[in-house]
Write a sequence for this structure.
């Protein structure tokens, strides 16, 4: 094989590899690990950490790159807290909507942007519905201390 053929083949492989979809890193957080992480975030009220851990458990089993199938309205939910792309993030195109983010940014093991967005969702929903957690349909499984305390039992955060 001539050096030119080797170079052409190498370039073809390189171009092909750059066109492959980017793989995102996934992480399934332990309950105490997530509680400790959230405790370090100023946008999360410490007394609400058990509820956040419960919601993440019910929404995604605490899997950071979870993406839902299409909902009845055609939207999808993204990341550990299942942030909806109808209101909060854009599934394609530039970053946008209320969290000013691309939904794919919620599907990796860095959940800092997820936490910033859910704090915004919580605040807006609290203003409109009186309880910020009502933005999540799974909140009905996480709405009392007896339902949420088991998620953080034995955790020090």
């Amino acid at each position: 094989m001539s050096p030119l053929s080797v170079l052409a083949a190498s370039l073809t492989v390189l171009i092909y590899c750059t066109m492959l979809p980017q793989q995102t890193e996934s992480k399934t957080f332990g309950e105490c690990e997530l509680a400790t992480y959230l405790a370090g975030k100023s946008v999360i009220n410490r007394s609400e950490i058990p509820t956040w851990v419960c919601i993440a458990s019910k929404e995604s089993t605490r899997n950071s790159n979870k993406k839902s199938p299409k909902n009845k309205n055609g939207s999808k939910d993204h990341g550990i807290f299942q942030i909806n792309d109808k209101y909060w993030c854009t599934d394609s195109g530039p970053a946008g909507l209320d969290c000013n983010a691309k939904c794919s940014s919620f599907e990796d093991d860095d959940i800092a942007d997820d936490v910033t967005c859910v704090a915004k969702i919580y605040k807006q929903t609290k203003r409109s519905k009186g309880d910020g957690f009502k933005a999540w349909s799974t909140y009905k499984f996480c709405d009392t201390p007896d339902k949420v305390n088991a998620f953080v039992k034995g955790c020090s955060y």
Observations:
- The chain has one domain: 25-152.
- Residues 5 and 15 are 15 Å apart (CA to CA).
